[in-house]
Amino acid sequence: MAISLNSGFEMPLMGLGLWRMEKDQIGPLIITAIKLGYRHFDCAAHYKNEVEVGKALAEAFRSGLVKREDVFITSKASLQLWNSDHGHVVGACRDSLKKLQLEYLDLYLIHFPIASTHTGVGTTGSVLDEDRMLDMDTTISLESTWHDMEKLVSLGLEARNICATAHTPLGGSVANTKDFGSISCLDDPILKGLAKKYEKSAAQIVLRWGIQRNIAVIPKTSKVERLKENLQVLDDFKLSKEDMDLIKTMDRKYRTNPASKSWGLDVYA
Ligand SMILES: NC(=O)c1ccc[n+]([C@@H]2O[C@H](COP(=O)([O-])OP(=O)(O)OC[C@H]3O[C@@H](n4cnc5c(N)ncnc54)[C@H](OP(=O)(O)O)[C@@H]3O)[C@@H](O)[C@H]2O)c1
């Protein structure tokens, strides 16, 4: 299953996320994933494993397992671009391409939306002030940016076929509990109830909820059994409208991936 982008390209709805993937597991896992049918890989410079991903992809292309044009590969500009250091876009992209051993990417993203001091549309500025501190514009909250994003959606972006990808589609599961102390959505009683009803796992319920809304999902797993389990949601069951609506009501009002806490500040506050 794929979603058609307004660029004319297709993005498979199921992808494999590669954050926190152990370097020595990546090669065999990517080859297995391709054999199982995965055709979408979510990479980033910041995941620090693009060299290993590149080796595995090169091997897959060289051996004829899959053709480059049949795989959708995303990368994201490195940490500097989480902010406003756009001066390095071309260099950062070239660096990822080199490491991934690719001639092109299917999607290239700015990794993280942080408002650093604005220097004018189309211009760039350093994210560090003269004291080498993060030069944030604290008058622009993430919430206000989010509302502006919602405004854009209502202005018709959806109608223009701009598609969304759900990163962390499992809420990070135990990885985010371990890293951030987050509560795993996979333990939620409603989702567990639906899992029982459909004779599926809670993970399969949330992934299906994503793709049934035509949102691409990129769960990360290092386990072959879970590669299969996650892929299965593409074709062997469907959530009823009633259950889709039920999940929609489940806003627990918390984030599972408060990444900026490791920088010593909470940008979501
Ligand atoms: N800003 C961004 O652009 C951004 C931010 C965050 C994430 N991402 C992307 O999104 C991908 C996915 O997000 P994520 O890795 O943070 O979280 P996630 O995919 O929601 O959850 C990953 C966790 O779920 C476990 N898991 C996988 N399949 C499972 C299943 N069927 N049942 C139970 N547990 C399961 C994994 O463990 P095992 O590995 O042990 O199976 C791992 O602990 C990342 O790898 C990255 O590519 C992008």
UniProtKB/TrEMBL annotation:
<keyword id="KW-0521">NADP</keyword>
<comment type="similarity">
    <text>Belongs to the aldo/keto reductase family.</text>
</comment>
<feature type="binding site">
    <location>
        <position position="111"/>
    </location>
    <ligand>
        <name>substrate</name>
    </ligand>
</feature>
<feature type="active site" description="Proton donor">
    <location>
        <position position="47"/>
    </location>
</feature>
<dbReference type="InterPro" id="IPR036812">
    <property type="entry name" value="NAD(P)_OxRdtase_dom_sf"/>
</dbReference>
<feature type="domain" description="NADP-dependent oxidoreductase">
    <location>
        <begin position="186"/>
        <end position="250"/>
    </location>
</feature>
<feature type="site" description="Lowers pKa of active site Tyr">
    <location>
        <position position="76"/>
    </location>
</feature>
<feature type="domain" description="NADP-dependent oxidoreductase">
    <location>
        <begin position="15"/>
        <end position="157"/>
    </location>
</feature>
<dbReference type="GO" id="GO:0050088">
    <property type="term" value="F:mannose-6-phosphate 6-reductase activity"/>
</dbReference>
<dbReference type="InterPro" id="IPR023210">
    <property type="entry name" value="NADP_OxRdtase_dom"/>
</dbReference>
<keyword id="KW-0560">Oxidoreductase</keyword>
<dbReference type="InterPro" id="IPR018170">
    <property type="entry name" value="Aldo/ket_reductase_CS"/>
</dbReference>
<dbReference type="Pfam" id="PF00248">
    <property type="entry name" value="Aldo_ket_red"/>
</dbReference>
<protein>
    <submittedName>
        <fullName>Putative mannose-6-phosphate 6-reductase</fullName>
        <ecNumber>1.1.1.224</ecNumber>
    </submittedName>
</protein>
<dbReference type="InterPro" id="IPR020471">
    <property type="entry name" value="AKR"/>
</dbReference>
